[in-house]
Amino acid sequence: MDQTKRHFLHLLGAGAVLAMAGASSLMTGAGNVMAATITKLKLSDAEWRKRLSPARYNILRKEGTERAFSSPLDKEKRVGTFHCAGCDLALFDSETKFDSRTGWPSFFQALSGHVETKTDFKLIFPRTEYHCARCGGHQGHIFNDGPKPTGKRYCNNGLALTFKPKSA
Q1: In the annotation, is 87 catalytic?
Q2: Domain residues for 147?
Q3: How many whole angstroms separate alpha carbon 146 and alpha carbon 152?
Q4: Do 141 and 120 fall within a single domain?
Q5: Rounded to 5°, angle at Cα 37 from 34 and 42
């Protein structure tokens, strides 16, 4: 094969890889279009303290946990969207909420790309902790005891969320 054909095939292959990468970054699951890249929100500790109540600050910025059964959002049943209380990024659709009987709002799926995870060893054994993808605000932990179709339980602090009902 001569140099020109080889160069052409390399370019063709690179183009195909880039096209597939671009398509996969726009699609998730069964063809759902993903939201655009989320711009990170960086605030100083003083700015967070000014923006949030002490209880919300403790949860969102210090990875605290509220008392079980203390959040009215645990019983929220209206159609709408649950947003990060720190930056207002939509995190969960109400269709993914379920009653886990744990005392915290629980969901079986987050909005694609809107939460990030890390491993937490605070209770000695590893747990998957999740945060808002925009502001890094602590939301809760993911467990493998949720309902189908995912089998996941995103156990969320109610104070880390706000709820926006769908307008009729």
Answers
A1: no
A2: 45-165
A3: 4
A4: yes
A5: 140
